[in-house]
Amino acid sequence: MRILPRARREAMYALYAFCRELDDIADGDSSAGRDIKKSLTLLNHWSSRIDHLYDGNAQDALERVLLAAIRTYGLNKVDFQEIIEGMRMDLEGPIVFPDEQILDLYCDRVASAVGRISVRIFGARSKNADQVAYYLGRALQQVNILRDLNSDISLGRCYLPKQLVGRFQISTNIHSLLESDDIGSICKILAERAKDNFKSAEYYMGLCPTEAMKPARLMAASYKATLKSLEKQGWKNFKTPLKKSLAWKIIFFTKALIGK
Q1: 10 vs 14, 19, 235, CA distance in Å?
Q2: pTM
Q3: Is there a contact between 176 and 158 (Cβ–Cβ < 8 Å)?
Q4: Helix/strand/coil for 158
Q5: How far apart are CA 192 and CA 235, in angstroms?
């Protein structure tokens, strides 16, 4: 059964395509490869494209669907630009043991901003819906950090917050990080933070229209299951066959909504 009507489905497909392009740029999978300067140029180009969209100008099929969604669902320009800035943080970093405030900003940009756009497309446009995006985005990103520790390290990144790592006698060399006896304790603390954010998100979901929150509940259930699996592993095996990134979040939403 298709939960969303056609116009909303098309808006989600366009959002997915937008996020996928940005994700590829940040991970070195775009035409720029791992050339940081060229990748930043591509991000700047996307920033200009968003500016043009909000001036009412669409140049291709993707932009036309995005423009229609912006007008129909009241999508905020700042959220699109924040997603771009989140990808810029990865490129200009790399992010390694960030300060808590920097990590929270990163989570807001790459996850909660996506959520703020999504909830409007789904039909929830309120302060409570934005709170769902705020807390759920952070919960999902915290699970991502835990699940993708190994693959992120291979890219020279580590999103474990500096203040948390500093509580333990642990190497600041990210390539030996996972061999530390204290890595499990660090992961447990971050897992509890994710659980708290899931609880807060679920509270605000209850204050929003039920139909509009179905996709958010699906996403929360999927990521809570992932977190449970990680806990069962005992924080010992961080190698995963698939890095479920920003783009993956959007495609999960889309597939869930169209029943495929």
Answers
A1: 6, 14, 39
A2: 0.89
A3: no
A4: strand
A5: 14
Number of C-beta neighbours around residue 71 at 10 A: 12
Residue 40, burial from CB neighbour count under 10 angstroms (0-12, 13-18, 19+): middle
CA–CA gap between residue 17 and residue 215 (Å, rounded): 18
In whole angstroms, what is the distance from residue 251 CA to residue 16 CA? 6
User: How far apart are the C-alpha atoms of 26 and 86, rounded to whole Å?
Assistant: 9
Q: Quick count: other Cβ atoms within 10 Å of Cβ 249?
A: 25
Please list the residues that pair with 158 across neighbouring strands: 96
Question: 67 forms bridges with which residues in the sheet?
Answer: none
Domains present along the chain, CATH in parentheses: 6-258 (1.10.600.10)
C-alpha span between 61 and 67 (Å, rounded): 10
Structure tokens at 241: 């066959």
- Euclidean distance between CA atoms 125 and 201, whole angstroms: 15
Report pLDDT digits (tens) over 108-140. Answer: 999 999 999 999 999 999 999 999 999 999 999
CA distances from 200 to 64, 93, 107, 209 (A): 35, 30, 16, 16
Q: Between the CA atoms of 35, 148, 79 and 207, what dihedral angle is there, to the nearest 10 degrees?
A: 170
Mean pLDDT for back-to-back runs of 10 residues, the chain (260 residues): 76 93 90 92 97 96 96 98 97 93 98 97 96 98 94 92 91 86 94 98 97 89 91 78 51 50
